Amino acid sequence: MWPAIAVVAASYLLGSIPFSFLIARAFGVRDVRRVGSGNVGATNVLRSAGKAAGLLAFLLDAAKGAMATLLAQQVLPGDDRLPALAALLVVVGHMYPVWLRFQGGKGVATGFGALGPLAPWPALWAVSAFVVVAALTRYVSLGSIAGAVVLAALASALGTCPRPVAVAAVLAGALVVFRHRSNLHRLLAGTERRAAQPKE
Question: Which residue from 122, 106, 120 is spatially nearest to 172, judged by alpha carbons?
Fold first, then answer.
């Protein structure tokens, strides 16, 4: 019992590590919450600190999600509930990190990293949905929402994921959409910022 409790706590604390905040600061942005969209996430790091910083932030955020899930699988091999709970809590930790007064990111990269090992095919289709929607609309936020919805829907509908994993995917997807509520308002108002046009 105690190892499982430790994994649950570690998953939240791991998610709370503000890699995007730290990477942006290392690349010269003192507080990423004070620039751009104000979001502590890879997209805002990319826009404010550059492509290298944004990519590094994305990879580290995804890695901490995967680490939480893989740790849970090692502690209770063959059990689907603990990894699913760890995946959900690492996303919650990223969104509401204790180190930044619960002002975190939107959970897209961390959610992908956490659920990828548990639901690989839905995660792959989610990435495809993100790429297609973001490329067609040039709205990263809309691509992120589409990816979260596709992952949750496929994890639930395909029957290839254990029920705890499907539930975690749905809850994580709902949290991602909730965290994008301001983006949704701007999309509806026509004021959402598009991704930068490629250079000619």
Answer: 106
